Recover the amino acids of this structure.
């Protein structure tokens, strides 16, 4: 009997060891998290896009697991149709596109609709900053506005903006003050909003005597979209609060932002 007990105990140890070894092997074999594949589209007029290109992608990459591809082929043109977006093949290579450009004189309806619908149909997220909000606005197409969830044609003169957070529980707004005053910035007047648009923060216009959202999200088809009209000046772009906000926007649009505003496991700073 004693010998049988000893043999059984030995068997348990062997099985337990094998199980633990197998578990360790499974853990070791687990594939690493793939970085978010992000495209940064920039260029056009009226803004310091060269300086901002050196600020935004590196800052986001320091806070989140993101690998960037930069497209600055537009140079200073406000009416160029960049080669990358002349079809929708680019969607297979990226999880999100961050638009920080000013293509205000692009009016080609099929081109604009192809770009906006590529996001809608593929689910590739979009993060849209300042000048990109006013891109394509002179076209008869409103496809870009529908992607953003809002359309704007004009903005106020630059002045410090008293920003009020209206959705403090949204994960993108975690860490953003309930109220804060910016450096002189342009407040965009939103002429139209779509049903999927959710305001996150707003400011009062001294010109229209109305409040206007300046940070918001939208859902368009399969795509999540984060938009802020802040960012006319490079000093605004390089503000740590702004850069953290944009980073959370990138994470949210790709589904990697937890409810507490922190990156999902594997998607924090590398």
């Amino acid at each position: 009997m004693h010998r049988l007990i000893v043999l059984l105990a030995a068997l348990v140890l062997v099985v337990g060891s094998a199980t633990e070894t197998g578990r360790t092997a499974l853990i070791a074999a687990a594939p690493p998290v793939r970085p978010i594949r992000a495209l940064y589209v920039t260029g056009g007029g009226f803004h310091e896009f060269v300086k901002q290109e050196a600020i935004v992608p590196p800052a986001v990459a320091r806070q989140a697991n993101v690998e960037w591809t930069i497209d600055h082929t537009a140079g200073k043109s406000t009416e160029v149709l960049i080669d990358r977006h002349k079809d929708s093949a680019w969607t297979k290579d990226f999880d999100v596109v961050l638009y920080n450009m000013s293509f205000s004189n692009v009016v080609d309806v099929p081109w604009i609709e192809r770009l906006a619908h590529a996001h809608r149909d593929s689910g590739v997220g979009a993060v849209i900053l300042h000048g990109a909000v006013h891109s394509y606005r002179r076209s008869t197409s409103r496809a870009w506005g529908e992607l953003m969830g809002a359309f704007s044609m004009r903005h106020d003169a630059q002045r410090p903006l008293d920003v009020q957070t209206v959705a403090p529980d949204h994960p993108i707004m975690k860490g953003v003050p309930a109220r804060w005053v910016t450096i002189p910035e342009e407040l965009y007047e939103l002429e139209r909003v779509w049903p999927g648009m959710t305001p996150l923060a707003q400011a009062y216009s001294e010109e229209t005597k109305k409040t206007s959202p300046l940070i918001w999200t939208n859902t368009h088809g399969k795509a999540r979209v984060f938009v802020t009209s802040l960012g006319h000046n490079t000093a605004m772009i390089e503000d740590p609060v702004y850069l953290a906000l944009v980073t959370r926007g990138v994470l949210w649009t790709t589904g990697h932002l937890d409810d507490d505003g922190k990156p999902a496991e594997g998607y924090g700073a590398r």
Notes: Residues 1-29 have pLDDT under 50 and may be disordered.
